[in-house]
Design goal:
The chain crosses the membrane at residues 38-55. The chain is an alpha+beta fold and 139 residues long. It has three helices and six strands. The chain has helices at residues 2-18, 34-55, 116-133; strands spanning 59-62, 66-71, 74-79, 83-87, 94-99, 104-111.
């Protein structure tokens, strides 16, 4: 939905810029509207990016079997068995998942600057991860 809205906003900005009527000076000479057209298209692009970002806000959801991560660049669903560690490196902006293949996936929804809510989220994720990795006789 947000991608469609962003494309529509850019389309409206482009059509508006292309169909701007030519202004004239008091003497009747045409006025160059290139700066106004460029500004209109740039404003449309900025607005479209804002709409797109709002529609794809970062998210982390987890349950006993997997963790779902939504970033502005895409969505991931990873089984806990693929996660080796959850960490918040000192000085980093957000928490990270270290995966068994050596990759690191950032959890931009869990930001260090959030303080206590971030600590609570990491603690809960670590508990789910630990529970999922423990061998169980009834699994």
């Amino acid at each position: 939905m947000s991608v469609a809205a962003a494309v529509a906003i850019i389309g409206v900005a482009l059509v508006s810029a292309a169909t701007m009527t030519g202004a004239v000076t008091a003497a009747g000479a045409p006025v160059d509207q290139t700066p106004e057209r460029v500004a209109l298209v740039c404003a449309g692009i900025v607005l479209a990016l804002i709409v797109w970002w709002l529609g794809t806000r970062p998210l982390v959801r987890a349950d006993a079997t997997a963790i779902e991560i939504r970033h502005i660049t895409g969505d991931y669903t990873l089984p806990w068995s693929a996660v080796t560690r959850i960490r918040v490196p000192r000085g980093e902006l957000w928490a990270n998942l270290e995966l068994d293949n050596g990759d690191v996936v950032g959890l931009s929804a869990v930001q260090s600057i959030d303080g206590t809510p971030a600590v609570t989220a990491v603690t809960a994720l670590r508990a789910l991860h630990a529970a999922a990795r423990q061998p169980s006789s009834h699994r």
